[in-house]
Design goal:
single chain; Outer Surface Protein A, domain 3; 3 domains; 3-stranded antiparallel sheet; 17 strands; 17% strand; globular
Length: 441
């Protein structure tokens, strides 16, 4: 039982006699019916429960007071008053409360934790540093070892310096957050957790593959570590980026986690007013972190044995599109849809390519460069002619109905593409039917 109960700071409380207690927040509104709520609610200002019972003696029995408080606590409407939360600005306390974090606990975590700021590229981080200070985030001095989170700011995710930084944090195991405030597309994340999520190398490979010309120049070192094409920016767009980034850092500290950023890039298009989320999948053959399954080994352990797949016959479950499928196309989309992303996906897009006025008769979907015609994900290893062909070519699927076309656009794009330490071998059809086959993913 709470000793000094108060309504959680994100609630606005209004009492209307004989009608109830109205609780209003940005995302939730409710009405508490009953005279007990009307009598007790206005007095929940942080005073001790004993004083509350004494004030209401003769009108409300102590048992009724405790019962009402217990109901409010069960429903998540009240919290313990006093402590650090009492000195926190109301808006800040309301934010942590909305995130289901006790404002006092949030203040304590912010006071105990430090972050390290690192910059790669031509970015002025002083406005960012000031915002972090306003949110009570402690920024460690250069060289400090007592750092809970590394925060890296860059003007492009292929910048020189990110690769050695990635190797160092994989060695130490420290989580870190990558931020790009430059350009018309603000990038926040991923929050990398060594041994659990993919690493920067996993993300860089996807970026090079999904931006083949940029990847080609990066591989040839023609960029010399300079930014690619993110040259736009004004104080207003940078302020948007710094606000989102500072809130992400403070929220990670206060909550102790950040599921929306862990292994994900969150982007905001300042021109189109649209936000998107991009999942980063850990690459099993990544030269930096793909050394073992995340649940079984640390990053410095030796190579993991290849996963073995037993090829077996499966019953046809879907034939409506003229083909034979073991699972319906909607199930394929559900299982593999997170691989579709122009930033971190194996499939950079899934866009309808038929004319707008065809009455949706033609179900043609484009899913990005044709990997079979180009040099593969390692664009820099190919010639410029191959890169041009791959950048111009597109993988398409033409099926009806539309879900079949979308499902088909996901699976074939990277089939047969080899990379890093992909295993190679020769098997006969009879061997494949009788022997488990080692694969890398």
């Amino acid at each position: 039982m709470m000793h000094r109960p108060v309504f959680k700071p994100h609630y606005l409380v209004k009492v209307i006699e004989n009608e109830g207690v109205f609780l209003l927040s940005e995302r939730h509104q409710t009405v508490l019916l009953g005279w007990l709520y009307e009598v007790i609610a206005p007095r929940l200002d942080g005073r001790p429960v004993e004083d509350l019972c004494a004030e209401l003696r003769g009108r409300v029995m102590p048992a009724q007071v405790y019962y009402t408080l217990n109901q409010l606590e069960k429903k998540g409407y009240i919290a313990e008053g006093g402590g650090d939360a009492a000195t926190m600005p109301p808006g800040e306390a309301a934010l942590w409360s909305m995130l289901r974090v006790d404002p006092g606990e949030a203040a304590g975590r912010l006071a105990r934790s430090t972050v390290a700021l690192t910059v790669f590229g031509a970015v002025d981080i002083e406005p960012f540093r000031a915002l972090l200070g306003a949110l009570r985030v402690r920024v460690a001095e250069a060289g400090s070892e007592e750092v809970g989170l590394g925060v890296v700011v860059t003007d492009h995710y292929l910048r020189d310096g990110l690769q050695p930084y990635n190797k160092e944090v994989l060695r130490t195991g420290r989580p870190w957050l990558l931020i790009k405030p430059a350009g018309t597309m603000v990038w926040i994340g991923p929050l990398f957790r060594p041994g659990i999520t993919g690493c920067w190398e996993c993300l860089a490979e996807r970026i090079r593959a999904n931006f083949p010309i940029l990847g080609y120049l990066d591989g040839k070192r023609a960029l010399n570590g300079a930014t690619g094409a993110d040259r736009c920016g004004t104080p207003a767009t940078e302020a948007v980026a710094w606000g989102l980034a500072a809130n992400a850092v403070a929220s990670w500290i206060a909550q102790g986690e950040s599921p929306q950023l862990e292994g994900r890039v969150q982007t905001f298009d300042v021109l189109g007013w649209r936000g998107e989320s991009h999942a980063l999948v850990r690459h099993p053959t990544c030269p930096s972190c793909g050394t073992a399954p995340p649940e079984a080994a640390a990053p410095d352990q030796g190579p993991a044995p290849p996963r073995v797949v037993q090829l077996t016959s499966r019953k046809k479950a879907f034939t409506n599109d003229g083909g034979h499928r073991a699972v319906p196309p909607r199930e394929t989309l559900r299982r593999f849809g997170h691989h579709v992303s122009p930033i971190s996906g194996v499939v950079p897009m899934m866009e309808r390519a038929a004319p707008d006025n065809d009455g949706e008769v033609m179900h043609v979907y484009v899913s990005g460069p044709n990997m079979a015609r180009g040099p593969g994900p390692g664009w820099a290893s190919g010639r410029i002619s191959a890169t041009r062909v791959a950048a111009r070519g597109r993988t398409r699927s033409r099926l009806a109905p539309a879900p079949c076309a979308r499902g088909s656009s996901v699976t074939p794009r990277s089939s047969g593409v080899t990379n890093h330490d992909s295993r190679r071998g020769s098997w006969t059809s009879a061997t494949l039917e009788s022997t488990p086959t080692p694969v890398c993913s």
